[in-house]
Amino acid sequence: MTAVSAPTGQWPLLRAETLAKTYHTPAGAHEAVRDVTFDVHAGEVVSIVGPSGAGKTTLLRILAGLLAPTSGRVLLSGVPVEGPPQGAALVFQDYSRSLLPWLSVLGNVTLPLRSARVPRAEAADRARQALASVGLEGKEKLRPRELSGGMQQRVSIARALAYQPRLLLMDEPFASVDAQTRMDLEDLVLPLREQYGMTIVTVTHDIDEAVYLSDRVVVLSPPPSTVSAVVDIPLPAPRSQTATKEDPRFGRLRHRVLDLVRRPEPAAPATTQERILNR
Ligand SMILES: Nc1ncnc2c1ncn2[C@@H]1O[C@H](COP(=O)(O)OP(=O)(O)OP(=O)(O)O)[C@@H](O)[C@H]1O
């Protein structure tokens, strides 16, 4: 983990600055990301959406310090990210590969804490609290295979929470579960943001999910990607699967983001957003 020093000046929590990524393979160079810049402010939920192959996972891996950009940089509180930064946790789509099958639920959640040299009793305490906050109290001794897919993804989320991150990065976190569980997990995450004081950046294919969860949605162009638009989502909190999704503003924002993903256009000025909402 890279140590991150105290914030300097008025930096956003996270800045993606002119990021580009070209992969070099035996078949030749592949430019996945051309020029991506956006900010994420403390406490926000920001979703990254875009057409298939637009480099969403590539970007998330760069933000997480797992992949070096070809050019550009990531700043966390103004400090360049040059490896997995302290205070950031990642949740992957594929819970079946991210949980260790031979460890108990509690063992899976405490493992990264023990690796970070958190004392055993404190690690167990934090893990139990995180498991309780995702509704898995009493499941600590089970093995992952004894849980449903949705419950296994809750364990992955608990593992990230127990780390007490200020930044939670999620790559298609709910893509591998059924629709009902997906809604349950979406509704789990928003209160956790408050409870743990986190900032969340998530990649998703699901436009409804992006609009439902987010304060802002970053829309990527087709590859090699640039930012087509950053759409503000000024829907009231708390969000609700019924009331929010029946709100005509939700429908208009969803329509807007979908249009941008399908037919990218230059970023809309802020006033356009207001016009969309008041139309
Ligand atoms: N390790 C790699 N080596 C070479 N090319 C890669 C590598 N990882 C990704 N790519 C290529 O980069 C492009 C962007 O991939 P990425 O997975 O980031 O896109 P994505 O937007 O997340 O895709 P999807 O929407 O299909 O999940 C794709 O063309 C992919 O084939």
Structure report:
The chain is an alpha/beta fold. The protein folds into two domains: 14-87 and 167-278, Rossmann fold (3-Layer(aba) Sandwich); 94-164, no CATH class. Helices cover 37% and strands 23% of the residues. It has ten helices and ten strands. It has helices spanning 56-63, 95-98, 105-115, 120-133, 149-162, 179-196, 207-213, 243-246, 248-262, 270-278, and strands at residues 14-25, 28-40, 45-49, 71-76, 79-80, 88-91, 167-171, 199-203, 216-220, 225-232. Strands 5-4-1-2-10-9-3-8-7-6 form a ten-stranded mixed beta sheet, with helices on both faces. Strand 1 (14-25) and strand 2 form a beta hairpin. The relative contact order is 0.16. The model is unreliable at 268-279 (pLDDT under 50). Adenosine-5'-triphosphate (ATP) is lined by residues 23, 25, 30, 32, 50, 52-58, 205. Residues 14-247 form the ABC transporter domain. It comes from Streptosporangium saharense. One of its GO terms (molecular function) is ATP binding. This is NitT/TauT family transport system ATP-binding protein.
